[in-house]
Write a structure and sequence with these properties.
Layout lengths: L5 H13 L7 E3 L1 H10 L8 E6 L2 H11 L3 E5 L2 E9 L6 E7 L1 E3 L2 E8 L11 H13 L15 E8 L6 E3 L6 E4 L2 H9 L11 H4 L3 E2 L2
Parallel strand pairs: 1-10, 2-5
Antiparallel strand pairs: 1-2, 3-4, 4-5, 6-7, 7-8, 8-11, 9-10
Length: 211
């Protein structure tokens, strides 16, 4: 597991320093994990850090420690935390999802409007509405009526077996990745070694469970 991208190295190390002393395990996930394994850094046009955690107490400790950021809630419970890190000229978004263990599955809400495969066919009004929902999700809880009628109530579903054994990401103390990383990426992205220019998360991601 090698990270050659200097910007990603610096960002990962900064996050690791921020959470030092919290005694939590963050997992490099989604586009970040895929980028490290396939590109040794960020994916093209995807300059953010995706992390996951399955520790509610640790998640709240992290939010309190970092302070500034956006907390997303679903039915009153926080499930995602976003913040920016780095110098003003090269800030990177960090997206941390809180998963819950249900039997043998890690689950997390995926609330919002689904994008369409061919955006050229999306009307201007629908595009504006979808973008508006993305903004409002940062401030409002769409788990309750009447806002609940405006979005899809999808979920991320990932077998917990992929997280039973973890390895530490190089240059960090608190950030990990699945030991069986190839199997995990195959579950999520199928032929993950080859970029898919037509990728749509809610349609193609093996970990996305549509409501």
């Amino acid at each position: 597991m090698i990270i050659k991208d200097k910007k990603m190295q610096d960002t990962i190390q900064s996050i690791d320093s921020l959470v030092e002393g919290l005694n939590i395990k963050l997992i490099a996930d989604s586009g970040t994990l895929l980028g490290i394994c396939r590109e040794s850094g960020f994916l093209k046009n995807d300059y953010e850090i995706d992390l996951s955690i399955c520790d509610r107490e640790g998640f709240h400790k992290l939010i309190r420690k970092i302070g500034k950021g956006k907390v997303y809630k679903y039915k009153g419970a926080p499930y995602k935390f976003e913040f920016e890190i780095g110098a003003s000229s090269s800030k990177v978004f960090v997206d941390i999802k809180l998963f819950s263990l249900k039997e043998d599955t890690w689950t997390c809400p995926a609330v919002g409007r689904r994008s369409i495969p061919n955006k050229s066919k999306e009307s201007c009004l629908k595009y504006i509405f979808r973008k508006l929902i993305q903004i409002l999700k940062q401030k409002l809880d769409f788990g309750y009526f009447p806002l609940s009628n405006l979005v899809f109530h999808d979920q991320w579903h990932v077998p917990s077996k992929f997280f039973d054994n973890l390895d530490s990401l190089p240059i960090t103390k608190s950030i990990y990745y699945p030991s069986e990383v190839s199997s995990y990426l195959t579950y999520r992205y199928f032929n993950w070694r080859s970029p898919n220019p037509n990728w749509i998360s809610h349609r193609d991601d093996g970990g996305f469970y549509r409501s």
